[in-house]
Fold this sequence. Notes:
single chain; alpha/beta; Rossmann fold; 2 domains; 6-stranded mixed beta sheet; two-stranded antiparallel ribbon; 8 strands; elongated
Amino acid sequence: xxxxxxxxxxxxxxxxxxxxxxxxxxxxxxxxxxxxxxxxxxxxxxxxxxxxxxxxxxxxxxxxxxxxxxxxxxxxxxxxxxxxxxxxxxxxxxxxxxxxxxxxxxxxxxxxxxxxxxxxxxxxxxxxxxxxxxxxxxxxxxxxxxxxxxxxxxxxxxxxxxxxxxxxxxxxxxxxxx
Length: 178
């Protein structure tokens, strides 16, 4: 039995990379949300959920909700991965979209920068973002967030930084060895 379970939901692989990195550094079992079972959660002492942010939405929270009753006696953490926001802004937006987030009793919530390259996306996302790109290119007064989003669509980027996981790793290690 692993004392730490990391459950991730990743659309294009970046969240999975962060989850895998975390698992390797704290000796956690790492599972996709599709493969996790109630027994996996019951066997763990600490559960870390990781999910990507899409339009301020974090799909992994559906999994948290599904297992909420099983998490009551656990130490639970959340990390999110996105492309345009700072950690403070991303977490603030998530809390606005999910006003019930405190009901999950996360010990802490983290944000990590991801990557974006529309050429690796499925047809629907690629075409949707291409349309957004065209609309934004016609705007003369883009907000700072719109400029960042436009740049993220226009110029493939990889902003992953595994070293940003160190505070979460330290918290998990202090939990394990406490």
